[in-house]
Amino acid sequence: MKDYFFQDSVGKPMDRVDGRQKVTGAAKYSAEYELPNMTHAVLVGSIIAKGRIKSMDTKKAENAPGVLAVLYHQNAPKVPGYVQAAHPSEPKPVGQPLRAFYDDKVYFNGQPVAVVVADTLERAMYAAHLVKVTYEEEKHATDFTKNVSKAFLPTAAQRNPKHPLNDYVRGKKDAYKTADIKIEQEYVIPTEVHNPMELQSIVAHWEANDKLTVYDKTQAVIGTQNAFAKDWDIPVENVKVIATFVGGAFGNGLHTWPHETAAIMAAKKVNRPVKLVLTREQMFTMVGYRPHAWQKVGMSATPDGKITAITHEAIGQTSSYEEFTESTLQQTRMMYTSPNVTTRYRILPLDVSTPIWMRGPGEATGAFALESALDEMAHVIGMDPLEFRMRNHTDRDPEKDLPWSTKYLKEAMQMGAERIGWSKRPNIPGTLKNGEWLVGYGMGVGTFGANRGRAKVRAVLHDDGTVVLQCATTDIGPGTGTAMVQIAAQNLGLAPEKIIFELGSSLYPPSPSQGGSATVASVGSAVHAACKALQQRLATLVADNDAGFKGATADKLTFDNGYLSLAATPAARVSFADVLKRQKLKEIEVTEESKPGDERTKYSMYSYSVHFAEVHVHPLTGQIKVAKIVSCADAGTIVNTKTAGNQMIGGAVGGIGMALTEGTVMDHRFGRYVTKDLAEYHVPVHADAPAIDVFFVNKPDLINNPNGTKGIGEIAIIGVAPAIANAVFNATGKRIRELPITPDKLI
Ligand code: MOS
What's the ipTM? Predict the structure, then answer.
């Protein structure tokens, strides 16, 4: 392994380069930007779920103190292009993203119908309450279960027989039905909401009639820049997007949303900068969510534990105006060796806002059903669920019929089983006790595509020996800048302290959105390329100008700690800074692009995780305590064991939420959430989060990219919820197939 590892820097648990800024409050988030003449905008949301705006009385609001404008569909500045939505998925979902104040139609409860702009936030809030809207209400449908018969195959799949959302059959269709040993169960997850700490916010500022600057909470700097340029029909370079710090985002920043357009419209109208911060309640309806999903798994196996067939069906919720889809069934098609696999995916439009990916997106939903079903089947045949998974392990992708680039799932499973103490798991559920508490163990496996996109990085070496790298990626929390500094240090041969990585601005070279667990693979590869290009430039400079280095090429030189030397002539050693100084150069600059090649036609690439949970359940109260979680991942080279570990811990906490506490509840009489703040929508708190131990296989995937990395963000949560649900079954003998597993479901 040592050959591949760049042990000087990559692999170390380096502290975050921006950690001090974050904990001291020096880090500036979008809502914290103050511009001269700032104004404040507050959105008014619809109180009906479907219908039309009949009348809008804004007089009182307009006359309230400090109010500068009240905008709605009849007086809002026209958006000439109106594409909206920096949607990274291809093909894009069928439908039209919601356009702010476009017409009188209401598609969901809470839809923005007006925006009030005032000179202070308080005055804007006050005036927003004075806007009187009357509606012509139509009958709405928001109840998933009652409307499930209206589910259909997504239009994109209907149009294209090769679309991955089409029904998939390997071997014989629904083969489990005729088998001797089989299970067939339904699984449900409710709508979940991202709820990052930082509220979605934007400061919009028209610097000229055709020149827009936004300080915006987004995961996609370039995507947002392109979307606004098209919306407003102005050159891309006239739109500046700044997102230097992002206070958590789990998919809610992968899209541009109506509140951003509302702020930009308002700034145009009042000709002053506008700040708009969503309320926590608005975060439930305006920036996407994990859609409610129904799933059914049928599975058959031989008595000795070979899966013979799986059928996995899923129906996910979407809105009436857009067809949101996700990869709920992907894991089922490739994870286990089964000769017969059938998957069927459908979507159900309701009078709600459009969902979006939420960490681990469809795969986390799908894994809950698949990995619960695995546990159920293992129980039926009386086999240890770890052994059952090992027996159905596959060393080749059965879906694509390709070899894996790398797959160390077995190693991860063994590692985790040891660390959790899997041998303590009782074979008969409900038989292990700790005082009054029932004790159980469960596991769940996760996978997610080891994605990589095209990214560009600029690197400037200064004559003081420091390097500044720039890329328009964001850091939504994983520590992107830190990882990039480590990759640069390694590939340049320079101490991390001498390297600065700047991100979060559209002025920097382009990067994909920070999503799909792809940033380190995409941007890290461009950092690698930029560093190698700098080394080339240094090599050329010394070879051309320094007798001791005559004829030297980069591959013959050693680059170490800011010096380059020629191994054959140890006397020939010079610092990077001196190479520049001797040529009277202030700096040298390179910009390099990196993109995947054709390796994906030859290999199938995934990251893997396995999560083990120990739970304690009180038989009288139904209270569940997660006593321990051990998460192990095969995510290629681990650039920073500390920040990567942080991500895994965060994902595990998200998984505890998914399993035990999170879920929205809607009052279908109004199509409105009753869970609309963090008092009602329960994310796990410290008291809910036990010791979480993280281990990495840490073997590089050099087929994927030159740094050998695979993504972590999604696999951190995928598989956690079923691990906990399976542990609850092991503790109690009760199988809960509808999340979250609240105490009432156990007693
Ligand atoms: Mo993630 S769901 O790609 O933010």
Answer: 0.98
